[in-house]
């Protein structure tokens, strides 16, 4: 049996200086909790294997859909169903955006970023 461990999001992101960084903070059964630090836009993409949930910790997170943009502030969250094309945009001011993302560990990313090719695992 694993020992419970406390995570401090502020400590995890303190030394992140890139304009985009996404990393696994915890594994929960067959899902992961990712911490995402955004100071720029992420590309348009879709996930075919799993829904994903974003919860904003700091800053503002805009989630663009084909016909709608949702703006989230700290304490707000949104569930993006699998198969729905979207992109996230972080705050370039305010020190950036910090959000938690909960999704299946094997979730895929199919999108407009040429570096991803036809399909790639989430970074």
TrEMBL record:
InterPro entries registered for this protein in UniProt: Cupin_2, PKS_Associated_Protein, RmlC-like_jellyroll, RmlC_Cupin_sf
Domain Cupin type-2: residue ranges: 42-92
Gene3D superfamilies referenced in this protein's UniProt entry, alphabetically: Jelly Rolls
Transmembrane segments: none
Pfam families: Cupin_2
PANTHER family xref list: 16.7 KDA PROTEIN IN WHIE LOCUS
Official protein name in the record: Cupin 2 conserved barrel domain protein
Upper taxonomic lineage: Bacteria, Pseudomonadati, Thermodesulfobacteriota, Desulfovibrionia, Desulfovibrionales
């Amino acid at each position: 049996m694993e020992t419970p461990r406390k995570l401090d999001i502020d400590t995890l992101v303190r030394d992140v200086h890139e304009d985009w960084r996404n990393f696994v903070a915890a594994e929960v059964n067959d899902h992961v909790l990712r911490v995402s630090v955004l100071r720029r836009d992420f590309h348009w993409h879709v996930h075919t294997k799993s829904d994903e949930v974003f919860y904003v910790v700091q800053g503002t997170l805009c989630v663009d859909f084909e016909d709608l943009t949702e703006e989230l502030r700290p304490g707000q969250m949104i569930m993006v169903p699998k198969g729905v094309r979207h992109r996230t945009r972080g705050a370039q001011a305010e020190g950036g955006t910090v959000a938690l993302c909960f999704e299946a560990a094997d979730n895929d990313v199919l999108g407009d970023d040429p570096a991803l090719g036809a399909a790639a695992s989430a970074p």
